[in-house]
């Protein structure tokens, strides 16, 4: 069967390869792939049967990559303890809404950072088999934590290196692409100190990460306090999630090791808003606020690469705004939402830039993200695997 060809023309093209935009770019798609990128029409093949989409005045970028989300609890009101009692059938409906919401926001790839009972695996299968149009899912499965530790309701409780090895292997056996450990614990209902403390020690996390790396998988940690971040680095982690209390010294070690940071600004600072999480959770968010920007600035100064992640309550517009307020440049925000996210996931050969041979995952904006990061909210079209979608017609 002949593949559909689509020519996207006349957009200002931000490829993610070169920081200098192409003022009048042409991108030719064939099926689910990009087959040509050019600055003039004579740089792309032509054909009588190809569809042409005029994007004059628009801005064409790689599809956005959300490297930290939870599809079963995205922007759901109520305390997480109550949500844990929600049936899987209801949570599956929330999963569908989450992936469609992400897609309408220009997000074409999600790293799903933990859900119970195989819900993320079900969603990944539905999307891959064409039962649902949505972002590609890279999944964690269930996170590893200590008994009664952070997120123990939906995680796998491990209290020794042997238990950690077995739990990591089981997650991989069940289809996980990543292994995640809860390096720190937070008492979200507490109104004071300590804000965060160590949850899993180095030998336990190293045992899990060794298994993951043996199977060619990557590893992430939930880590708030600096001690937990340092422990995770010693254990061999690939990405630090949140990293709110990151010190300058630990940031330098992250840069030396090439470890990514996913700050999830909007996911954490939005805790302070009224999502029905309870006064304790809001107070916890307020306590963390004073550390978040300084920690991120330590990462910027050290040269740590970072990527977008919205967590359960955030969104790309607020994430970009908060990154910029903490010192990131607009182009840094664009790269964090695209190329660097693909590098973090180990998928840079397939997504993250606008280049011939890459997957046809693209986002079209009404306004220029290099002038104002508010442009992340000006989605005009989303292109997933070559399919051009109007976000207004995606049911969410």
Could you give a quick summary of the protein structure above?
With 396 residues, the chain is an alpha/beta fold.
Could you explain how this protein is built, in words?
The protein has 396 residues and is of the alpha/beta class. It folds into two domains: 5-63 and 352-393, Urease, subunit C, domain 1 (Roll), CATH 2.30.40.10; 64-345, Metal-dependent hydrolases (TIM Barrel). The protein is 33% helix and 22% strand. It contains twelve helices and 19 strands. The strands form five sheets. Strands 1, 2, 3, 4, 5, 17, 18 and 19 form an eight-stranded mixed sheet that branches. Helix 4 packs parallel to helix 5, helix 5 (202-214) crosses helix 6 (226-235) and helix 7 crosses helix 9 (279-302). The longest helix has 24 residues, at 279-302. The model has no long low-confidence stretch (mean pLDDT 91).
Overall tally of domains: 2
CATH superfamily of the largest domain: Metal-dependent hydrolases
Instruction: Note the overall shape.
Output: globular
Amino- and carboxy-terminal Cα gap: 32 Å
Radius of gyration: 21 Å
Q: How would you sum up the major sheet?
A: 8 strands, mixed
* Helix coverage percent: 25-40%
The overall strand count is 19
Query: What quaternary form is this?
Result: single chain
Question: Count of helices?
Answer: 12
Determine the structural class based on helices, strands and strand pairing.
alpha/beta
Q: Can you tell me the CATH topology of the largest domain? A: TIM Barrel
CATH hierarchy, class of the largest domain = Alpha Beta
Which residues form runs of ≥5 with pLDDT under 50? Answer: none
User: Per DSSP, what share of the residues sits in E-state strands of 2 or more residues?
Assistant: 15-25%
* Known CATH architecture of the largest domain: Alpha-Beta Barrel
Q: What would the average pLDDT be, to the nearest integer?
A: 91
């Amino acid at each position: 069967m002949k593949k559909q060809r689509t020519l996207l023309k006349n957009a200002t093209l931000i490829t993610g390869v070169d920081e200098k935009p192409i003022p009048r770019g042409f991108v030719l798609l064939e099926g689910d792939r990009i087959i040509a990128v050019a600055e003039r029409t004579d740089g792309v093949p032509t054909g009588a049967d190809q569809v042409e989409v005029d994007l004059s005045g628009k801005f064409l970028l790689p599809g956005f990559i959300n490297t930290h989300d939870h599809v079963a609890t995205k922007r759901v009101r109520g305390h997480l303890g109550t949500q844990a009692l929600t049936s899987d059938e209801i949570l599956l409906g929330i999963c569908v809404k989450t992936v469609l919401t992400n897609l309408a926001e220009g997000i074409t790839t999600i790293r799903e950072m933990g859900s119970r009972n195989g819900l993320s695996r079900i969603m990944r299968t539905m999307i891959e088999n064409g039962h649902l149009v949505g972002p590609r899912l890279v999944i964690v499965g269930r996170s590893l934590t200590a008994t009664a530790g952070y997120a123990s309701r939906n995680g796998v409780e491990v209290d020794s290196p042997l238990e950690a090895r077995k739990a990591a292997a089981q997650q991989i056996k069940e289809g996980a692409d990543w292994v995640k450990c809860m390096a720190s614990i937070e008492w979200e209902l507490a109104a004071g100190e300590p804000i965060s403390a160590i949850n899993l020690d180095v030998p336990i996390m190293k045992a899990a990460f060794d298994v993951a790396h043996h199977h060619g998988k990557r590893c992430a940690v939930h880590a708030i306090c600096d001690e937990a971040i340092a422990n995770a680095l010693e254990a061999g982690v690939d990405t630090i999630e949140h990293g709110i209390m990151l010190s300058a010294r630990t940031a330098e070690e992250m840069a030396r090791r090439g470890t990514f940071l996913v700050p999830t600004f909007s996911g954490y600072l939005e805790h302070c808003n009224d999502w029905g999480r309870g006064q304790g959770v809001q107070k916890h968010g307020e306590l963390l606020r004073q550390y978040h920007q300084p920690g991120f600035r330590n990462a910027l100064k050290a040269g740590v690469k970072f990527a977008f992640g919205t967590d359960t309550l955030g969104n790309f517009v607020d994430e970009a705004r908060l990154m910029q307020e903490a010192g990131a440049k607009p182009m840094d925000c664009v790269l964090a939402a695209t190329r660097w996210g693909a590098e973090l996931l180990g998928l840079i050969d397939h997504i993250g830039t606008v280049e011939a041979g890459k997957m046809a995952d693209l986002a079209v904006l009404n306004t220029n993200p290099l002038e104002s990061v508010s442009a992340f909210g000006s989605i005009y079209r989303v292109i997933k695997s070559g399919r051009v979608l109007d976000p207004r017609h995606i049911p969410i």
